[in-house]
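Batch 3, record 17
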Amino acid sequence: MSHDDHHGVMIPAPGPEFVAHEVAHHFSTPVQEFQAGKLGFWLFLATEILLFGGLFAAYFYFHEVFPETFRVGGQQLDWRLGALNTSVLLLSSWTMAMGVRSAQTSQKSKTMIYLVLTVLGALGFMVIKFIEYSAKNEHGLIVFSELFSGYDEVTGQVAWFKDYHGVMKDVAHGHMFFAIYLTMTAIHGLHVIIGAIAIIYVLYGTSKGRYHAGYYLPVDLAGLYWHLVDLIWIFLFPLLYLVP
Amino acid sequence: MTTNTPAVDVQTTQPKAPRENYLNCTTSFKSWALTLDHKRIGLMYLIGTSLAFLAGGVFALLVRLHLWEPEGMLFSNPTYNQIFTLHGAFMVFLFVIPAIPGSLGNIVMPLMVGAKDVALPKLNLLSFYLWVIGAVMAVAAIVMGGFDTGWTFYAPYSLYTDQAVVTIGLAIFVLGFSSIFTGLNFIVTVHKLRAPGMTWFRMPLFVWAIYATAILQVLATPVLGITVLLVAFERLYNVGIFDPRLGGDPVLFEHFFWFYSHPAVYIMVLPAFGIISELVTVHSRKPLFGYKLIAFSSIAIAIISFLVWGHHMFTSGQSTYAMFAFSFLTFFVAIPTAIKEFSWVATVWKGSVALNSPMLYTLAFLIIFAIGGLTGVILGALNVDLHLHDTYFVVAHFHYVMMGSIALAFFAGLHHWWPKMFGIMYNEFQAKIACALIFIGFNATFLPQFVMGSRGMPRRYATYVPEYADYHKASTIGAMILGTGVALMVFYLVASLFIRKKAKQNQWGGVTLDWMCPTPPPHLNFDEEPQVVHEVYDYTTLDYETLQRDCD
Ligand SMILES: [Cu+2]
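Prediction for the assembled complex:
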């Protein structure tokens, strides 16, 4: 049984290397099971977007209140590294889409290759993010060792914001931009890690031959999640790195 | 499938043996702890949320006892702050939000649509355990020194107080995801698992209400999640978004908080509306008046509720135009709500009303909710609210809705489906006494609060001027009566589990699918997949034999 008949592609029947899928007891048909899983996951993605929606609302609000802080703060980020990361994620979204396609057409080894490439993309993204964070750490814009050291009543400064080179000294509440930058990118980074774990999980399932034209829902869902992670970054990148 | 076959054999060879049902089909601890059966998960929710309700109730009684004297009788002022915060946080996050969807929604809704289970049973179990983790974290926060911010966690106080705000904040984040996953599960169940013939307009109104609630759970709760997370981040690494010392804006917190918490009022109350819609028709044995109106009004309430959050912030510093719009939109919520109230009353009208205990709780709801709803309209009026803001009038209003309406509807539903869930009946006489005590005690507690609130008694104060002493004493006495009624209810419900007086197969004469499957339901709910051929609430289809026959 395939859910993909209307795409008009030849779908090889699952061969001996695959495990037949059993529909869960409370569903009548595999189609019902597939649609229920998809609908549930789309709703979950909506909640993820709303979760980030709160952060985006905070971003826009403080961008209005402290435009100079956000302008100068944005200049401290390296847009080339941001752009590189954007390309890495976009590419990994493509490899993920190809992975799902290969699973749908029961091409086990192709699926494995594409999923491995996607995980490598996630890894690459995190490495570049780490390089960026280290630079901020060096310039005292986000001093990670002092992240939880609180607030100095006398100087009115947060402990993790030292600004060694005084780049933010002329703007109000210079730490605000980096607080929002750190919060948004860290939560996004967490999603990258969760997405990578999900992909590794379906990679394992693929190696066991669980996914094929008759049943590829988990690969599909991991793919949807990965595209969401990519989509959120596509909004984060221009807002944080490019908007004046 | 396989689990049902032996049951039939047993019944034919040994007629006395009880039929296999979801309670006795397996018995090991693991079969309960890791169950994927929506009915067992619902029962575990019922036990958990009831315990939270009793804990919250004890905190409430402590608050009322303390306020017996103007100077306060029991606690220091800081301790009093913690006690009323615990009352609010336990009641809202551990009881009112999860109770009806988690327990009755879980048990009854899949039966009503004719499904074998919810669409995503593992996610359902995860929801329950997230609730447990949230509850454990809430208790841990008490052990770690408590929290005194009020259940609303307003910044900047919640950022500065030296108490366990991070722990309770993260607890609420976890509870939020429990609620989101429940809602998500129910939306998918309603869309994908309805039995053949169960069209949208043949769905019982409890299902409609749970569905509208689920939409709100999914769309509003993430905003609360990120809000409490940001409060925790503020305390951990001084983000500054809500902290005025760092250029942040505490009013932004209020916007975030109420953007969730106003819809949350409907997350709490819509399931209650659903229960009442079911009960008025069954116990009046008459089709519901205005079925489609009630169904659509649930959806209308769900939509409008996203546009009115600013009515909690009339004194917080919003623009005059925003306040005007929020006040105006608030009146709009009254329309679908009133449609429901009128439809329920019209259903009872000329019905063949049976004053069973669930119906008594329902009638108590109808009276109390009328007061709770109308005082809400009063508070929605901008100029009046400026006077009544943060007084006991507000406290009385939302208790008329939260406790008097939602908790009473929950009790009503519990009494209604108790025989379905366990196949046993409680003592009806004691149930009626308890209902009377709860009704009288509730009104005695909160009517005086309307009066003292309109005369200026501020909420959340540990002490007060002696002029308000009589009102407070009346309120405290009322709370004792209310507490007695609840204690009696807990007693006879628990006792019924030991006395085991058999319920009827169809105790009240319902015609929705939840009464068509065996009582108590088997593991897979229906012996064969139900085919829906009748319109909903068609009492001409009632099989009177099932009202007489003892359940299996
Ligand atoms: Cu409100």
